[in-house]
Predict the 3D structure of the following.
Amino acid sequence: MKKQMWIKIDAQKGIIGPQSVRGSEDTWIPYISYTGEIPSGKILGRKYEDHQVSEILLDGPEQEEESVIIARLNRTQRNIFLQETTLQGWGDADYRDAQSTETLTAWDTYRQALRDFPTTHSEFSTRKLNRSEFPTKPT
């Protein structure tokens, strides 16, 4: 049995939901919740496909798919953090020219740490990471 839910990936809070009503922003994505009994030898996993996340029953070799989904969710959150810095102006030459060397170094280091994060965090593909585990944004 499956139930339509909604989740949102927020830059500060991580995954919000699932909840039964879609939020007003366009950033909410469908989440299909599995509501049946989980048979012996099976685990509940998540699959991202066609712009929705579905809870599915997994066993044996398919468990590898769970790590792909988790990595994709963590990578999406990481990409949101990178996009925020771009929207602030860190990708714009004129904006960068107006900043001090110390500020530029701090933000460039932060952006590089975000880019490298999938290969530097040992649990990137094994569990959903909290905001506090990602590189710290300069102040």
Notes: The chain has a mean pLDDT of 79. Residues 63-90 form the longest helix (28 residues). The longest strand covers residues 2-10. The helical segments are 63-90, 93-97, 101-120.
